[in-house]
């Protein structure tokens, strides 16, 4: 059987081909799964998709009509999947329930330090042989307060980094993580966390109840000189509200690895095109904002684990087994 993999990055391709080689053939495409590209999957029983694939009902109908019966998503998040429609159409859907939490946590910390110490501005200057220090002053993180929204595996890993830098730790989640408590974290209401934190980092899944968790009111509750980092899902932050606050001169820095309207932009080369997204275009003009292209997970370790889990999900499907990765089982 040949597996069709959509949205495969150049660095990812050899890992996928090597992992599937002992079991099935695999055809890797750099195009992302959309309503326009879904017909390519005709005749493929199993496909694999990336985090920005469109897996809503119109796309799922095309896939099902073309003979697809199993979708193996190469990500943990599945807010892009219409699970009810998949069940009605008899499609099995599986995800990667976990991978290296250190990849995302370390990148989130990197974003925080990059905006705090003005690394991008400094690097740009030195390329022009401008070695002035004006405007490059940062702050010690030691002794300041880190607020971690979401203290699962990734949030815990980020907490350990912040603890290692001598920060006071505040947490917010539906359940307290004993490991974070042992590090000295105090769980507090969200508004208190936002008001007291010098650094706020988001590690929460995107669900209807967390959409725009950081809205205009939440942003106004934060310190004027706080640092905000989002390496989870773009929809957690109301970007228009964030732009409005940035225009008022607020926040020491904002590091975003995700963006709520990133589909159709991130992972693609748009350098020769006019960007029609006015909000994103305005966002990247602020000197205290750093936007990266959803790369926090993108380490050899994490991607290798994602690919291995994807192969196991496909093998489980062909063998009629069900694991904790299955979101919609065989009908």
From TrEMBL:
Residues 8-327 form the D-isomer specific 2-hydroxyacid dehydrogenase catalytic domain. GO terms for molecular function: D-lactate dehydrogenase (NAD+) activity; NAD binding. Transmembrane segments: none annotated. InterPro entries: D-isomer_2_OHA_DH_cat_dom, D-isomer_DH_CS, D-isomer_DH_CS1, D-isomer_DH_NAD-bd, D-LDH-like, NAD(P)-bd_dom_sf. The keyword ATP-binding does not apply. The keyword NAD applies. Residues 110-296 form the D-isomer specific 2-hydroxyacid dehydrogenase NAD-binding domain. Keywords: NAD, Oxidoreductase. PROSITE patterns: D_2_HYDROXYACID_DH_1, D_2_HYDROXYACID_DH_3. Belongs to the D-isomer specific 2-hydroxyacid dehydrogenase family. This is Hydroxyacid dehydrogenase. It comes from Streptomyces yokosukanensis. The lineage of its organism: Bacteria, Bacillati, Actinomycetota, Actinomycetes, Kitasatosporales.
């Amino acid at each position: 059987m040949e597996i069709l993999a959509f949205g495969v990055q150049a660095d990812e391709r050899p890992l996928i081909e090597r992992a599937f080689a002992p079991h099935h053939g695999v055809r890797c495409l750099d195009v992302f799964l959309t309503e326009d590209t879904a017909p390519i999957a005709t005749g493929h029983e199993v496909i694999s998709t990336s985090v920005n694939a469109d897996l809503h009902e119109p796309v799922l109908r095309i896939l099902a009509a073309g003979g697809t019966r199993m979708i193996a998503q190469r990500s943990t998040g599945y807010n892009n999947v219409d699970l009810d429609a998949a069940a009605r159409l008899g499609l099995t859907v599986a995800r990667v329930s976990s991978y290296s939490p250190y990849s995302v946590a370390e990148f989130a910390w990197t974003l925080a330090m990059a905006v705090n110490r003005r690394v991008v501005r400094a690097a740009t200057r030195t390329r022009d042989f401008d070695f002035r220090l004006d405007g490059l002053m940062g702050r010690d993180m030691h002794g300041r307060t880190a607020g971690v929204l979401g203290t699962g595996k990734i949030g815990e890993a980020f907490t350990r980094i912040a603890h290692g830098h001598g920060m006071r730790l505040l947490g917010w989640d539906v359940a307290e993580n004993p490991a974070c408590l042992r590090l000295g974290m105090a769980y507090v209401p969200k508004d208190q966390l936002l008001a007291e934190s010098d650094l706020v980092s988001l590690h929460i899944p995107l669900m209807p109840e967390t959409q725009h968790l950081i809205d205009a009111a939440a942003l106004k509750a934060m310190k004027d000189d706080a640092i905000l980092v989002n390496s989870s899902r773009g929809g957690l932050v109301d970007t228009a509200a964030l732009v409005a606050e940035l225009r008022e001169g607020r926040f020491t820095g904002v590091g975003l690895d995700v963006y709520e309207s990133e589909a159709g932009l991130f992972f693609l080369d748009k350098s020769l095109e006019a960007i029609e997204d006015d909000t994103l275009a305005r966002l990247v003009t602020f000197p205290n904002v750093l936007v990266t292209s959803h790369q926090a997970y993108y380490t050899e370790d994490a991607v290798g684990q994602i690919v291995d889990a994807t192969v196991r999900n496909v093998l489980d499907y062909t063998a009629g087994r069900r694991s904790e990765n299955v979101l919609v089982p065989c009908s």
